[in-house]
């Protein structure tokens, strides 16, 4: 078998066999296939696309290129949640203890962020002492005993995806539904969950900014998951403005804590309740989404979810006093109030621009070597649909560097569209994708 033949076949619109895909993945991972041939094949795939069978075979080959986490020692149905990412997306931090409080084991392998803010692991490390480095035995014991553990992904989890994504990133072949779907799902499948709920974001702050593309990606991933024997559903959700109010690591942790205590922004709370309801459904501890919703709302209102979060923090080495009193979290040097220059309705807040403003402050990573400032970020005071008077505070900018604050302020100003008349507000949830197809709401 030769790479030349695979490139020629796909360039001309042919269908790659499972054997050919396995040959490519193994050869490139082992270093036997050069970058220029791998790039040529990826570009051929980009233009000619892959069918459902090819996409599934590619996902499986990348999944099998490294470690497969075995979670069979954990009692019950393990349900994982994956978000395609966005601005202010701290969902796992609140959602995991909520679901665990309902009796469903949450064994979560997470990553670090490269972009607007840190990833879930970075945000959790805002809590002093919190550790995401866990031996597998400790990880399994924590889930069995407390229903929850969150750890960093092993370096050898789907290594083929890591090197192929790096190549896609520099060869303009990222934006292909099959390549995106296989990249996401190979890691989820290798992480050992029995069932998967996908939160596919769409809007200005999402990877898939077009809603039809988001549904297409969701359907592709749901097919992969179900074909690989995992119950998988996807929710297509709104990322046209930041999720919640806080954008920035410790600021998002504090917002997640407030949500677990029954407060928090309505959009963020509603997303956690909705995703949690579907996770309970896939775990088969409820028969309907409505029953799941009642159960989720109950563990929040009774304080059970917050208690589980405190136990989770203690068991992973975190100082729980910060959870019990969020005023203890380190604060940025200054807080600047961005005032509205107009009177009217906020009809748009460009999520990606808010994210870039937070990145300018130091809340995220521009490169893998970047050091995150856990204290900086942005807290929105007004959201889309709100009426604002000139001079009212739109947002609070938490900063440690005056020059960065000035740059971030200019970016943040441009994120707002304020008009005399109010426009219709987009829903939080656009639809649900299951093995039976797409249901738009």
Automatic annotation (TrEMBL):
Any Pfam family: Glycos_trans_3N
Pyrimidine nucleoside phosphorylase C-terminal domain ranges (all copies): 345-419
InterPro entries with a match to the protein in the record: Glycosyl_Trfase_fam3, Glycosyl_Trfase_fam3_N_dom, PYNP_C, Pyrmidine_PPas_bac/euk, Pyrmidine_PPase_CS, Thymidine/pyrmidine_PPase
Enzymatic reactions: 2'-deoxyuridine + phosphate = 2-deoxy-alpha-D-ribose 1-phosphate + uracil; uridine + phosphate = alpha-D-ribose 1-phosphate + uracil; thymidine + phosphate = 2-deoxy-alpha-D-ribose 1-phosphate + thymine
Key word Mitochondrion present: no
GO molecular function: pyrimidine-nucleoside phosphorylase activity
Keywords for this protein: Glycosyltransferase, Transferase
Domain of life: Bacteria
PROSITE patterns: THYMID_PHOSPHORYLASE
EC number: 2.4.2.2
Task performed by this protein: Catalyzes phosphorolysis of the pyrimidine nucleosides uridine, thymidine and 2'-deoxyuridine with the formation of the corresponding pyrimidine base and ribose-1-phosphate.
Similarity-based family: Belongs to the thymidine/pyrimidine-nucleoside phosphorylase family.
Subunit annotation: Homodimer.
Protein name: Pyrimidine-nucleoside phosphorylase
Organism: Alkaliphilus flagellatus
